[in-house]
Amino acid sequence: PGMRVAVVAAAGVFVLILTGAYVRGDGATAACSAWPLCSPDALLPGGGAQLVHMGHRVASAIVGLLVAAAVMAGWRVRAQVPGAGPLAVATGALFAAQIVLGALNPLSAFAPWALGVHPATASALWVASVALAAVLWRPPVALDTLRDYVALTKPGVMSLLLLTALGGTFAAARGIPPLHIVLATLVGGAAASGGAAALNHFFDRDIDERMRRTSARPVVANRVRGSHAVAYGIALNVFAFTLLSLVANVLAASLAIAGTLFYIIVYTLWLKRTTVQNIVIGGAAGAFPPLVGWAAVTGSLDLAAWLLFAIIFAWTPAHFWALALLIKEDYARAGVPMLPVVRGDRETAVGILRYALVLLPLTILLFVIGAAGAPYLIAAIILGALFVLFAVRLVRASDLRLRAVARTTYLYSLLYLALLFVALMVDSTLTVLHLV
Fold this sequence. Notes:
By secondary structure, the chain is mostly helical. Helix content is 77%, strand content 0%. The longest helix is centred in the C-terminal third of the chain and has 31 residues. The chain is globular. The termini are far apart.
């Protein structure tokens, strides 16, 4: 029951985002000047734009009940399910913040900061609700196969990739992108990402069976046949290419497939097994989503799009090496030449610092070329400076503290990328509203 309500809540949050987008698109954002009623002197909305606006509020109340049930379900099993407690707290806190921000829009006379932060918080809430549903995914035996096929798509990784793709659409539009393009990018991007992950499960099965962290994956454990995983991965990518070609354009579709091919052929089959620079070069596979989002909106790529690619390209080694410090023994057992295995912990920590230092000016370049505004710049500087501080702590950590500091650095790296792209979306939204 907890899993089901969490899945429904995650779907409800996504629908809530769509209703919010419709309110913006219909020009009904400022139709109601009070909260919770539409106006101080009327119990019911007057019709037209006010009905659209109040419909979003009603949807928020309904979804709020679902989110509350999902949060309670996650909290109840926090001792048995790793990650359920923190994700339940994060989901509940983000929804509460979303309600407060929704109220502050009319109460602050639709101040620029409130209009911008409201949709950005909604994106963060959706990511948290999807993550909560994923960790609570404990279906009955009859649905075990479905669970395994969901696991093949690596939904946790997919959520972050989709957030960067969404950021690419907002940055390309320098505002709020068309709804059909957003949906195509998210659905097509999810299919391409999930398909690439399914193929990775097959081609990495020899490595996965020797690593404690991955030894229970569906293909390794023979719960899903290897041929079925390959067929599933190919089918998802064919669907992604078809959808993006029809709704967006062939360039966006081709970039999605290019990301899959790079991930499987260049990284999984070649670099991962042969060189200590595997994740440095292979990390480019994870940098394709913002290009897909950008191309879906504009039909082309320019300097700003490639800067988004470069940001994720530089972020990936710092992020992945922090994880590699935590599971170094697994990689050594599997014979994968990750940096900590080949060069040691200290050189890995220094490498993380180098890439954190590169990220800071690289993210600022988006502002320098005029592709982002002051709100993004402030966020990029703060987030980048914190990343550097985490990396410095890692370099200075004693041998006894290294693992604990690596864990916090790894977790912050995830938060860093998510918040950076949320800041980009906020900045773009404020621009289209002529508030910056």
